[in-house]
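## retry 2 of 3
previous attempt timed out at serialization; input unchanged, resubmitting
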Amino acid sequence: MNRVNQLFGIQYPIIQAGMIWCSGWELAAAVSNAGGLGIIGAGSMYPDILRDHIRKCKAATDKPFAVNVPLLYPDIDQHIQIIIEEKVPIVFTSAGSPKKWTPLFKSNGIKVVHVVASSLLALKCQEAGVDAIVAEGFEAGGHNGREETTTLCLIPAVRKAIAVPLIAAGGIGTGRAMLAAFALGAEGVQIGTRFVCTHESSAHINFKEKVASLKEGDTQLSMKKVVPVRLIKNDFFNAIHEAENRGAGVEELVQILGRARAKMGMYEGDMNEGELEIGQVAALIDGIKPAAEVVHEIVAEFEAAKAEMCNLSF
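## retry succeeded, writing output
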């Protein structure tokens, strides 16, 4: 059993990412019941909605689960209070510094994991007292690192910099990719895109089907002047891309983005004007399946690939 399994009390070191509009209690419970670690994505939830999802997840699984909290969220104080009151065992923080909140979480017996995109930030998080770190490469969906460091380069760099358990993310959706991440120094993997295309995901069926149809090159990092985010190419992406190419400033890009654009796309199903956040690994997804089946396929492929590597010689 590796350190990630021990830290979270899970069977497999497979963590489902806390994705806005896609990862409610049903997905989190399904992944946890299958032996991984399910995560409720709080970034798209009002405080009362988050409490409801936590309670429903508790009722649906007796396994450990976590909540992902973007630290720049407007209602962060209320979210954190609810997490403490509901005795959530594990919190994944992102989009901000964990220095302020980590002592509070840990004083309440909550394990803390922070998501970073560089070894420098990983080291700062370790100094802040987090229990583990997710290092997320450029291939990832959603909000992305400005450095554009790929997972292949990021994981060994972070592994060299820190001593706490390391979880790899970005471009991982198969057992072979999981094995590769372990070879680079990771002790667990966080997977988002592959879990979007599951029956339990709260994403709109239009979005799930769109993701399952994507090919190489159908996503691109965008909005670097605002917050870098990997998007599916559609009418909204084209509008942003055209504006960026002619040198539009932050104010104009924010105006084009508007409000609730991600909800419009991923949750309400507008594939033309919605903001569709997804990772490059979508090109390897060929259908919508139960979350448990996804977990078990990844584990089986990991073991098969590991056996192949054991027979490799030069």
